[in-house]
Amino acid sequence: MVAASASIRRILVMTTILDSTLTAAQRSAVEHIDGPLLILAGPGSGKTRVVTHRIAYLTQQGVSPRQIVALTFTNKAADEMRHRVESLVTRAGEFHLSTFHRFCSRLLRRYASLVGLGEHFTIYDTDDSARALRHTLEKAGISNTTFSPRQIASEISRAKNNLVEADRYEPPNGLPLGTVVAEIYPLYQQQLLSASAVDFDDLLLHVAVLLRENPELRKTLDEEFKYVLIDEYQDTNFAQYAILRALSQDHPNLAATGDPDQSIFGWRGANIENILRFEEDFPAVRVVRLEQNYRSTKSILRVADKLIVHNLNRKHKELFTDNPEGNPVELTCYVDQREEANAIARHIVEEIDSGRRRAQDFGIFYRINALSRTLELALREHGVPYQLVRGLEFFQRKEIKDIIAYLQLINNPSDDVAFLRTLNTPRRGIGKKTLQCLTRHSEEHGISLLESARSAGMIGQIAKRSAVRVATFVAIIDELSEKAAAPLEELMGLVMSNSGYHESLAHSDNEEDLERLANIEELLTLAREFDAQHPEAACLEVFLEEIALVGDTDDWEEETDRATLMTLHAAKGLEFPVVFLIAAEEGLLPHERSREDPDQIEEERRLLFVGITRAQQELKISIARRRDFRGQRRLTIPSQFLMELPRDELRMADSEGLGGYDGDEEPDAGAIARKVAKRHEAASGEAPPLTTAAELGKGQPIGGSRPIAETFSIDSESFHVGMPVAHPKYGLGKIAALSGPAQRRTATVNFVTAGVRKFRLHESPLRPVGRKP
DNA sequence: ATTCGCAAAGTTTTT
DNA sequence: CTTTGCGAAT
Questions:
Q1: CA(A50)–C1'(C3) in Å?
Q2: Is any atom of strand C within 7 angstroms of residue A630's beta carbon?
């Protein structure tokens, strides 16, 4: 009976797993069992499909699901993978399938004591960590450095990502920030340990150290997790790399999937070298390239490819597709962001009204969140339903964090950050002075703040009145702690009432307070759902871990029929039939902070690559001539990346009507797009859409006979490498290099159509296109 | 101890 | 234009 059903299942599995829809390359990855495997998967190449099928295949070949670990970076990716594995295998629940951080968190709970943590350690989010750091700075008496806690935190984070422990930290040469960090990092780490807390980076750091310093344990775990799969390998940092290697020594069955061209988290410590180096790390590796794209049209894919080949630090990859040619990619220039947003909204409305598309078919991407505003406004005005994907909204709200802090303190009484947060929230009249006494007392006796608070009455410097108030607070926490095992919703309700938090909000006629109350209601609902999912009691810690490791980026709903607005970073891993990519302008994409560093420019280029390759059928890139940003009106310069796109593949358009360009202004985005559009028209004999007849007559073809630089005299100082320039004869280009002294300053220019040429700057009609006002 | 007001700063953010 | 944090005033 059992055998029969097993063999039936086996047949079913066989047919679904190795069905004929797999290509040869995909199949070779799926059927790979032992030994290292590297899947270099281009965008839309069916990577997830391959990974899930391989998991199924492994079990079908007799590997126990318990020995398989599949790691992703996002919950969304983990959920999707789980979903898809479940449709292939029956025992899907037994796999270790989670995000990297969650996997580490579980491991760490098992072995917490080995790294000096309590079993009930708290996971701090970025905000909590910042508070811990600030508290540490205060205790150390170096609160008035030139560096912000944020800067310090990010340097500590960088160190942790690179597996540099507190006692081994050395300031990178000449970095003034480093000296401060060298001093504060050990104290901060000590603070975390004594509070029995970890920050996000610690989850990785501790596990990596654990594996490094306990060879026996490492061996055990290597054995336990025989088959490790890691998704988005290009985004791993050094700590993650170390963990993966430690788990793949005796059983080097590490399967990594990734795409170096989609590495966009370098600024968070991700090291693209990890994937580029994989073949050296595991010489016996089997490399599978998935280069066929099943997502995008040919024309979209060509544009993506032409862009990404400009990256120098890159493995060549051939992208191709059997999909139809599709419409040309559009590049439109608008007068300002208002018009850009309105045009997009209008277009979406038209498409929906005509029945060609649904709202959910549209994705709108931008480089920074601040750009979403105008879009939202326009979409609302046009009645387009939309959803805005923005990480960490709900759980970062003050009131939510307040309530959570109570729960954290109940779960882990050593948690000083939670103590600090709750002590005087709501207002209990406990002030700075009292707090200082408590802090000093806990330092002197090596005990937690809550422990100190218990003996507040005995501490001389604390006034009677204050001591009573502190005692009241301790009593509240103690009372709540007795209910720690109660269902979450109940516990949370008790927190609300006993702490006086509810009262402090309920009796307010302040609208904001009422909203806060509503948010807390939502949290209670969440708790109720959680209770339902975890009928066994004592799930407080699980809940806390859940909300620490789940951002609410997951509130993006695939199901609902709404257009989606998000940053380019958030768009990774998703796809939309129609993609709008706005504000392809210098300073925004690439972002101005990336300008100096060529590596960062390459990352920005990859970011655009990721955006482009999200599009299935249509891609519309846009710029605005003028953009109001931070309250300032600025003329824009089109992104240097636009120069790298294949001109003859793009449909250029300029939305501007009559009389917009008065000739007095510096040449700007509008002028350029118009000119390029005109040039394109001349080349193809086809008028670009959206361009008025009047407009066509006005544009100045760059490659035309009339010089356009006669009135410009520009000193050589105003040129720099990477700058877009125009030449009356050769058209648009980009400065590839500069050399020579002022008088003989020479620029090497890479022209879009005319190749590479050199010029003496003060003799040539070469000029910058557009300039900041 | 709390509150109010002004100054300064302001990417991206899987966890 | 925002938001956020710190410092002075009540």
A1: 45
A2: yes
Residue A238, SS3 per DSSP: helix
For B10, nearest residue by CA–C1' is A630
Distances A769 to A138, A340, A712, A756 between C-alpha atoms, Å: 50, 21, 11, 18
A675 is catalytic: no
| Residue A555 · residue A390 · CB < 8 Å | no
Q: What is the pLDDT of residue A552?
A: 57
Of the residues A201, A231, A330, A618, which is catalytic?
A231
C-alpha to C-alpha distance for A656 and A597, rounded to whole angstroms:
35
Tell me the pairing of strands A746-751 and A731-739: antiparallel
A95 contacts A154 by C-beta, under 8 angstroms: no
How far apart are alpha carbons A202 and A133 in whole angstroms? 14
Alpha helices in A309-431 (DSSP H): 337-353, 372-381, 398-411, 416-423
Of A620, A623, A632, the C-alpha closest to A724 is A623
Q: How far is the CA of A587 from the C1' of B12 (A)?
A: 13
Query: In this predicted structure, what is the pLDDT of residue A473?
Result: 93
Read off the amino acid at residue A217: L
Low-confidence ranges of chain A (pLDDT < 70): 1-20, 143-145, 391-393, 537-538, 551-559, 656-719, 721-722, 727-732, 736-746, 748-765, 767-773
Please report, for residues A230, A500, A507, A510, the alpha-carbon distance to residue A504 in angstroms, rounded to integers and kept in the order given: 47, 6, 6, 11
Q: Where are the alpha helices (DSSP H) in A111-175?
A: 126-140, 149-161
Instruction: Answer yes or no: are the C-beta atoms of A31 and A57 closer than 8 Å.
Output: yes
pLDDT of residue A611: 96
* Number of helical H runs and strand E runs in chain A: 28, 23
β-bridge partners, A351? none
pLDDT at A302: 95
Distances from the Cα of A255 to the Cα of A234, A470, A524, angstroms: 13, 54, 41
Phi, psi of A321 (to 5 degrees): -150, 155
For strand A68-72 and strand A96-99, is the pairing parallel, antiparallel, or unpaired?
parallel
Token pair 């299942």 is at which residue? A9
Question: Which pLDDT score is estimated for A258?
Answer: 93
The full DSSP string for A695-725 is: HHHH---TTSSS-S-TT----GGG--TT-EE
User: What's the CA gap between A186 and A133, in Å, rounded?
Assistant: 11
**Which own/partner pairs from A135-140 qualify as long-range (CB within 8 Å, at least 24 positions apart)?**
A135/A191, A135/A416, A135/A417, A135/A420, A136/A184, A136/A187, A136/A188, A136/A191, A137/A184, A139/A187, A139/A191, A139/A439, A139/A443, A140/A183, A140/A184, A140/A187
CA atoms within 13 A on the CB side of A118: 16
Q: DSSP string covering A40-71, please?
A: EE-TTS-HHHHHHHHHHHHHHTT--GGGEEEE
Gap from A452 CA to C5 C1', Å: 29
- Mind giving me the DSSP string for A536-572? SS--HHHHHHHHHH--GGGG--SSS--EEEEETTTTT
Cα separation of A154 and A130, whole Å? Answer: 10
Contact A622, A346 (CB under 8 A): no
pTM of the model: 0.81
Distance A758 CA to B15 C1' (A): 48
Distance CA(A682)–CA(A698), nearest Å, equals 14
Which residues have a Cβ under 8 Å from the Cβ of A693 and sit 6 or more positions away? none
DSSP state of A459: -
Alpha-helix runs per DSSP H in A412-445: 416-423, 432-445
pLDDT reported for residue A273: 86
Clarify whether A231 is annotated catalytic.
Answer: yes
A631 touches strand C (CB under 7 A): yes
A432 CB neighbours strand C below 7 A: no
Question: What is the token pair recorded at A484?
Answer: 């720690």
